[in-house]
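Structure tokens please, single chain.
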Amino acid sequence: MTSDPMPEKSRFVSFALRSALALILFVAVVSIGFGVGVLVQSNPQWAVLSTAATDAQFEERVADYLTRNPEVIADAFEAYAERQGGSTSFSSAQNNNTGHSASRRLTRAERDRQLNEDPDSPVRGNANGNITLVEFFDYNCPYCRQILETLDDLQDANPRLRIVYKE
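Here you go.
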């Protein structure tokens, strides 16, 4: 005669009891989660990862920060230029009393020379003219296209005019 450690009826009761306990535990966890969700929705300051700021509030905070710390923009441009392996003249625009030191500030004559005598900038009119007009433009800008007629009139009126284009 073999002895069965647990009769068939006991096994069924044990399985049913474990299933019922698992179901009760599952319902309790879901209920608690739902309750916490409702509580957090009604009081967002309780949520750890709550994003209470709207887009408008966020934009306002960023604009306020950049207004109070404009040197951050120059620092970002310099970091970008360093990453690209190039150099930039944004360091000349930094304010010395902000704690950011520029390697060397450009003089006005040096800035003018960079602006007026850049060999990569297209020149129109008298290339050796002693009057230089720098035209900042955008190929897609309708106003920039409209100014071309005025530039033609200026060039016709003064043969010493040299027009340098900066995109």
